[in-house]
TrEMBL record:
Molecular function as annotated in GO: transmembrane transporter activity
Major facilitator superfamily (MFS) profile domain sequence ranges: 88-517
Protein name from the UniProt record: Major facilitator superfamily (MFS) profile domain-containing protein
Organism from which the protein derives: Galdieria partita
Xref: InterPro entries: MFS_dom, MFS_sugar_transport-like, MFS_trans_sf, Myo-inositol_Transporter, Sugar/inositol_transpt, Sugar_transporter_CS
Similarity section: Belongs to the major facilitator superfamily. Sugar transporter (TC 2.A.1.1) family.
Residue stretches spanning the membrane: 85-106, 126-147, 178-201, 213-235, 331-353, 368-388, 400-419, 425-442, 463-483, 495-514
């Protein structure tokens, strides 16, 4: 069969990939792929309870990055886990609340602090709102060193204590410059949290529920946004100090986090990387179903860490992401997702929605804050379906279905400035709520789920650090530029800009974003071994075929030769599915 489209590598290459359900290694030469072994319940059975030595012997030939290890009990009852594990998940999620709550608190607080400090310069207005994202750029990069030095638990503790200090600083700020300093400080801790929490959850949570837990971070950010709007409603009528109480409220989840973190276990994977095997064993015994599950995972993690060390020895991993073509394509798609997560305009609504209602639509401060509360509730509720639909319908499909809705709502918001006050208010409310309902289960969580799936294990931390950095960079640009955009383009021009950006984003994602739903890691590896041009041509052909089907026009029944058609792709590589 012709391989003009599919060009297999001619040299052996090992690419370690991470997915929601398991870790495998893709090791292929011309037309070969490794065989997967399945370790079922049989290795748990026997006349006596298995010891660590037993599992080391049983799994000595196992490939922790490829083989299947889930028992039937884990598959049928994945959520039957120890309370200690759920405590870890809850404490980690509290960190995401800190990130979310600030987004909405500043929306309500800025109505008053801009008046209090007599701020009229649009650049200062944007800088005060976006200051946390600027600090998060520093925090997200510093977190790599901090996580390696003191671990995930230590990083979360420092970030939570730092958040307490930053919140108090904001609440007591005597000038806008001091307020900006406090927001930059808070941003540093937010960057550490957003880089640490997803890694901790992926390393500590059992394979069977790792996929669902991967979406928890975005859900808790959305919940934090909603809680922040509740705080805004509580303090909006308190003159002079209301905005200070709003900004100071961030210290509440941070205080809870700082008290709870010391009682949380450390990541077992980090402990093993540091050679603290006995501690890792104790941790796994406390967060796994049984001692045998814990010992099995201890052996597998040790083997995986050893493999990772071999892969990373004498390599500049950041350089790998730029020089290895497949990794460069993965990085491009990851940054593309982060770009349009921000340039759809969601954080413009989140940071400035109260200001939009009061200054642009013309309603009172109290009504504006109440309307914002409804927007926050919409965000929290519509993030919930992601647990069920992201694996059912796929990441790519969710993006392509929801982008047109978001674009239409930006256009509707554009037209909410040409009628009477209450007609404008009604149109704007509809635009904001439908926009949020479309964003929350798709463009919100999808980038955070998709990026860890496509990066190989040995550069996953570096890949995620870079994409997280760009996410905060784009967030800063969007948040900082909005007040100036309002002054120069008016609100209508701003909404038109984001409508156009969403349209461009849909086109780029249509051509360049492969689907990861239902693909094993070796199949994903095959997709990104091909050029972006080949992937784009295939998506174009698929689009034309679907349009012809929609209008009842004849189409070929032959499968498209591509890097994206699973069965044909495997067959062309000489692999049986």
């Amino acid at each position: 069969m012709s391989t003009d489209i599919i060009k297999s590598p001619t040299r052996k290459a090992e690419r370690l990939h991470h997915s929601q359900d398991r870790i495998e290694v893709l090791s292929f030469s011309e037309g070969t792929t490794p065989k997967k072994k399945t370790y079922s319940d049989s290795y748990f059975q026997g006349p006596k309870e298995k010891t660590l030595e037993d599992f080391e012997e049983l799994l000595k030939d196992a490939n922790p990055l490829q083989d299947e290890f889930l028992t039937e009990e884990e598959k049928q009852h994945p959520w039957r886990q120890p309370l200690k594990l759920y405590y870890l998940v809850a404490v980690a999620a509290m960190g995401a609340l800190i990130v979310g709550i600030d987004i909405s608190l500043v929306s309500g607080a800025q109505i008053e602090y801009l008046k209090h400090f007599n701020v009229t310069n649009t650049n200062i207005t944007g800088l005060l709102a976006a200051g946390t994202t600027l600090g998060a750029l520093v925090g997200s990069m510093f977190s790599i060193l901090l996580n390696d030095w003191i671990g995930r638990r230590g990083s979360l503790f420092i970030a939570s204590v730092w958040s307490i200090g930053a919140s108090i600083w904001e609440a007591l700020a005597p000038s806008w410059k001091m307020l900006l300093a406090g927001r930059l400080m808070l941003g540093v801790s937010m960057g550490i949290i957003s880089s640490t929490v997803p890694v901790l959850l992926s390393e500590a949570v059992p394979t069977a529920i790792r996929g669902a837990i991967a979406s928890l971070y975005q859900q808790m950010v959305a919940t934090g946004i909603f809680i922040g709007y509740i705080v805004d409603v509580i303090f909006v009528n308190i003159d002079e100090i209301g905005w200070r109480l709003m900004l100071g409220a961030t210290m509440v989840p941070a205080l809870i986090e700082s008290i709870a973190v010391p009682f949380q276990v450390e990541s077992p994977r980090w402990l093993i990387k540091k050679g603290r095997i006995e501690q890792a064993e104790k941790v796994l015994l406390s967060i796994r179903l049984s001692s045998e599950h814990a010992l099995r995972d201890l052996v597998l993690i040790r083997k995986a860490v050893e493999e990772e060390k071999k892969m990373t020895e004498n390599k500049n991993l950041y350089a790998e992401l730029l020089t290895v073509p497949a990794l460069r394509r993965e990085l491009f798609v990851g940054i593309l997702l982060m770009l349009f997560q921000q340039f759809c305009g969601m954080n413009v609504f989140m940071y400035y929605v109260d200001y939009m209602f009061t200054d642009l639509i013309g309603i009172s401060d109290k009504k504006a804050v109440l309307a914002s509360l409804i927007a926050g509730f919409t965000n929290a509720v519509f993030t919930l379906p992601v647990y069920w639909i992201i694996d059912k319908y796929g990441r790519r499909s969710l993006q392509l279905w929801t982008f047109p809705i978001m674009c239409a709502m930006q256009v509707l918001a554009l037209f909410s400035y040409y009628g009477t006050k209450w007609v404008n208010f009604g149109l704007f409310m509809v635009a904001v709520f439908i926009f949020i309902a479309a964003y929350s289960p798709a463009n919100g969580p999808v980038p955070w789920v998709y990026c860890p799936e496509i990066f190989p294990l040995y550069v996953r931390a570096q890949g995620m650090a870079i994409t997280t950095f760009f996410n905060y960079l784009f967030n800063f640009v969007v948040s900082y530029s909005w007040p100036d955009m309002l002054q120069k383009l008016k609100a209508q021009g701003g909404y038109g800009f984001y409508a156009a950006a969403i349209a461009v984003g849909w086109v780029l994602l249509f051509f360049f974003m492969p689907e990861t739903k239902g693909y094993t890691l070796e199949q994903m590896g095959m997709v990104f071994e091909h050029s972006l041009g080949e992937i784009a041509r295939y998506h174009w052909k698929c689009g034309i075929r679907n349009i012809r089907k929609l209008f009842g026009l004849p189409t070929s029944s032959e499968p498209l030769a591509s890097p994206y058609n699973k069965k044909l792709n495997l067959k062309m590589h000489g692999v049986e599915e």
